[in-house]
Design goal:
Layout lengths: L24 E7 L3 H11 L6 E4 L16 E2 L10 H20 L3 E2 L3 E5 L2 H18 L4 E3 L1 H7 L8 E5 L3 E3 L1 H14 L3 E3 L4 E6 L13 E6 L6 E11 L5 H8 L9 E10 L9 E4 L12 E3 L5 E3 L4 E3 L12 H11 L8 E11 L17 E4 L6 E5 L5 H17 L6
Parallel strand pairs: 1-2, 1-12, 2-9, 5-14, 12-20
Antiparallel strand pairs: 3-8, 4-8, 5-7, 6-7, 10-11, 11-12, 13-16, 13-17, 13-18, 15-16, 19-20
Helix pairs in contact: 1-5, 1-8, 2-8
Length: 414
């Protein structure tokens, strides 16, 4: 487990293709075996006549961002109407609940309270309420002070609380196992331990766009291993923490980008009291780079707190920074004063890929960075996904539909 959570997905040797066996052609190559890459590969495998390969650099699927998060099914209440995060989260939530019901993936729709302690936080809740009511149609309701006192299980909300009843949690590893099984049942091939070394867009002539004659992807069979080449008609870059490196293999030097890394530290709670039966999020703080140190639950009801936001240079820096515990305690006690600080212990850390550094400002929001999902101009058959962080897990199935539409004009029924 990561802390107490499983770090790797089970593998069936008969369904794994290693790099030395990959000299073949496919209709689609998807780079990145996290939950988003799995969802895309599965969606593309539904395309009539398709042959899809999913390329993952690690020995197992879903070992990076997909397995180091809060496992929350988000309602999409924080994002403006015209953003990809809003549209894909709203659609993805419905698709995800439906898939879990059909295939027996464990989840719980427990709801979430956003709690405010001061006038500024109250104003933030009022803005969220207005957005949900007037623009995006997501159900929320105000929680009366009496209800907070009677049903709040020790939660403090001095300036009010807003409930998101459709928020839930999901077994992210069970979800990825399900998606992998569906992908392989449709004839898809999973290539593990296959880091991408080079990518070449092919063209049919001097006037043709790169990629018009397909793509060649060189992969390695581990350190010092043989190089094998996959040829595909279309290419999807869903490599998460490695997505910018893949992007930079394809574009000219002037168009290369840099990725920034925000680590999130999580702390688990070992005491039996207080008992909390819903997710608790502090109201957004103006100018904050995250959603605060929130309380989430796993499917067994165990409490954990996090993530915070710690900017780091190394995406492999996944050791929990225990020095941040006292700061986390101070934030938690604002909304859960009965918490026992001695029962908080470092658990695990996750990494969020960011397209802008700490403090970077956009034209409309100093903290907001939307998903980058685009069929790249100047190329044929290449869909590029960059900066896919929260709510990427919730949005994964809707992202997959979008990628299929970008490549083929429509999404196959799931």
């Amino acid at each position: 487990m990561l802390g107490r959570r499983a770090a790797r997905l089970a593998r069936s040797p008969s369904q794994i293709c290693h790099a030395q066996a990959l000299n073949f052609s496919s209709t689609a190559a998807v780079i990145g075996g996290g939950v988003v890459g799995l969802a895309i590969a599965r969606q593309l495998s539904l395309q009539p006549g398709s042959s899809t390969v999913l390329i993952e650099r690690h020995p197992a699927l879903g070992t990076e961002t997909s397995s180091r998060n809060s496992e929350v099914i988000h309602a999409g209440i924080y994002y403006g109407r015209d953003t990809l995060k809003a549209a894909l989260c709203h659609r993805g939530k419905d698709l995800l609940y439906s898939l879990c019901d059909r295939h027996g993936v464990a989840y719980r729709r427990m709801g979430k309270w956003l709690v405010a302690q001061n006038p500024a936080q109250r104003e933030a809740l009022e803005r969220i309420h207005a957005l949900c009511r007037d623009e995006i149609g997501v159900p929320v309701r105000w929680v009366a002070r009496k209800e907070v006192d009677e049903r709040g299980e020790g939660v403090r909300a001095e300036a009010g609380a807003l409930e998101s009843p459709t928020t839930g949690i999901v077994d992210s590893h069970g979800l990825m196992l399900c998606l992998r099984g569906l992908f392989e049942e449709a004839g898809g091939v999973v290539a593990l331990s296959s880091p991408v070394m080079d990518i070449r867009p092919l063209s049919g002539g001097a006037s043709s766009l790169p990629g018009s004659a397909g793509w060649e992807v060189d992969v390695s069979d581990g350190p010092g291993g043989d190089i094998s080449t996959i040829t595909a008609e279309t290419l999807v870059n869903a490599a998460g923490l490695g997505a910018v490196a893949v992007h930079n293999m394809i574009v000219p030097p002037s168009e290369r980008r840099r990725l920034y890394f925000a680590k999130g530290n999580y702390f688990s709670y070992t005491a039996s009291r207080p008992r909390i039966s819903r997710l608790i999020y502090p109201a957004p703080e103006p100018g904050a780079s995250g959603l605060g140190t929130h309380l989430t639950l796993d499917l067994a009801g165990r409490i954990r707190f996090g993530p915070d936001v710690e900017w780091v240079d190394d995406p492999n820096d996944l050791t929990v920074n225990a020095s941040r515990l006292q700061e986390a305690v101070a934030e938690i006690q604002k909304y859960l004063p009965a918490i026992d600080p001695a029962a908080l212990v470092p658990d695990y850390a996750g990494m969020r890929p960011k397209l802008a550094p700490k403090g970077a400002a956009s034209a409309t929001d100093k903290s907001f960075q939307d998903f980058y999902i685009k069929k790249e101009d100047g190329y044929e058959g290449w869909v590029n996904l960059l900066g896919i962080e929260s709510p990427g897990l919730t949005s994964s199935l809707a992202i997959a539909e979008m990628v299929q539409r970008l490549l083929h004009g429509q999404a196959s029924s799931t």
